[in-house]
Amino acid sequence: MEQDNLPTCPSVESSQSIEEQHNLLLIILISCVATIGGFLFGFDSGVINGTVEGLQSAFNSDSIGTGFNVASMLLGCAFGAFFAGTLADIYGRRSLLIVAAVLFIISAWGSGVADSSFEFVIYRVIGGLAVGAASVMAPAYISEIAPAQYRGMLTTIQQVAIIFGLFTAFISNYFLADIAGSAVTPLWMDFEAWRWMFWIELAPAALFLFALFFIPESPRFLVAASNNIQAQAVLAKLYGEKAAGTKVADIGKSLAADHHRPSLKDLFDKVSGKVRPIVWVGIGLAVLQQLVGINVVFYYGAVLWQAVGFSESDALLINIISGGVSIVACIITIMSIDKIGRKPLLVIGSLGMTVTLAIMVFAFVSADTDANGDLVLGSLGTLALIAANAYVFFFNISWGPVMWVMLGEMFPNQIRGSGLAIAGLAQWSANFVITMTFPIMLASIGLAGAYGFYSLCALASVAFVFKLVHETKGLELEDMQG
Length: 482
Hints:
By secondary structure, this protein is mostly helical. It has 19 helices and 2 strands.
């Protein structure tokens, strides 16, 4: 018997190893398809950065009107995140991503052909619905297919995709404006360059739609929908035949005892009738991510740097540098998040953002003004640029990717869709408020006042993380408590 067993052990181990490698490769490929939604999220968010001047010229809008044109997408994002989170519990994660892909296509085309602010806002809101849906569904989908030991890394790829989308939009805007001479100058087919900035998005949006038809539905959704046979088939492809049956049983045990479909009412504690504490933590994470002001840099970066004396070309180039810094930061997070955990990264990011924002405030307060009352940084320009890019770096090793990782994994299976719906609504609502108020703050209290507020919010996030956020590294989704 011993002689029979000895030669077969290496073969069995080798076979298991090959199967695990094959499964992990499949999971990575599936995750990459989902992250195309993140790329479009980033591109759609960043493309507006280089089109502000074109919108002002085409629609004759004032500062408040321009602010609404820029922020209008965020209204759609809030509703898109909320309804995607709730509808995903009915129709599935992949189904909602397919809807998002279609909406991306419609928005990209329509934003470029718009002839009025009203028409433009309608198409941007449609794009916002897509971005909102992708923002909550992509990390949720990835977290629900990924093994616990790789979940942080694979979900963080979503943030890399978002930043790469922003980075691509910045590069596209820069070169299109450079080829045309400016964003408002006609380019190909006599359409202004700013319109082409939106149309560039059509290619990745079409690719996303096509690729989604080749990935499976989330197995955790399938179990919640009482489709255990299909769930086991998907899990067999992801984790192997041996693990599939056990995993289906574990997922089933983590759901409601009466096996009712997940719904918003599950967010309330059955005993106390109050909202579950984990929901408030999710809302806090989502809102604080926006209150530190990161999207002011992404949406108004060109306007900000032009306001302190840089040319349009230089301002767009600075955006590209910031995008590159963001990608490097996210790569560091991918390599470290499953080793050192989520909570330490959040603390490091909060402290770093507090300091770098304070340095930017110092630079803006100390700057001179010209005859028109505009800030002139002079020798402080280098300090402001270094601080701004350091701020972007700290955000993207922490709150940028980690907030989405945690929202995708921190909720128990029964309330994941509903929890993401509420947290996504809060995140995008805060994003809208911050984006809409920046031009007003810029005109009233100046750059120093605005960035001073963001710095205080970054400081508050340190206390929030220490007191309320619990580590989720290495935990199975079935073990999440709420």
